Amino acid sequence: MLAKRIIPCLDIKNGQTVKGTNFVNLREAGDPVELGQLYSDQGADELVYLDITASHEGRKTFTDLVKRIAACINIPFTVGGGIHELSDVECLLGAGADKVSVNSSAIRNPQLIDDIARHFGSQVCVVAIDARQTSEGWKCYLNGGRIETDKTLFDWAHEANERGAGEILFTSMNHDGVKNGYANEALATLSDKLTIPIIASGGAGNKQHFKDAFETGKADAALAASVFHFGEIPIPELKAYLHAEGINVRI
To answer: What is the pTM of this model?
Structure first.
């Protein structure tokens, strides 16, 4: 069985790491290069950087940041935000990213998933899905959780899988920043329905939550932000706990 992965996520706004609750009320959490280097040194398996206010004007600045990150870490990292076409992917991979994450642009243009997979390989394409549980089921959202779409979580994830995505990064907007645990029931359903790895995101508040995401949620990786950024759960401590609980992690 493949080792379960621990992935710190760094949301970037104006060159700084930020973190909010339910996608709002952002506060600064530190320098993204310094944090990335710290997590790399602490034993994180991968990193995810998301340019949460990505725009055409900001792309060059963010590419420079990706180059600085790549020079300081020795683990794979994924970059997302403002990726609309293959040239954006080429630019970020050229700057040192290992994978790219597409979200709103993939919903608007699903063919983008096929194109990235065909040109760069499925392993490069992470499809991020921001979904909220509503009275009508899990609905997918665009633009950092601002716009509801007609797509549902499980159908869209299945389509992304079929189109060639290498992984699904599922963030529960209901659970984001609340620290009451991941959306394990939805995660388990995704794991059962899909043939590609699932990254859990949204809800980590203690070490038990990570264990639950792996055991109950059947996730392949668990992503978190604030518990790492603000020193609540040191990564070496988390991995030692998971190992002691019988979870296969890289120590």
So the answer is: 0.93
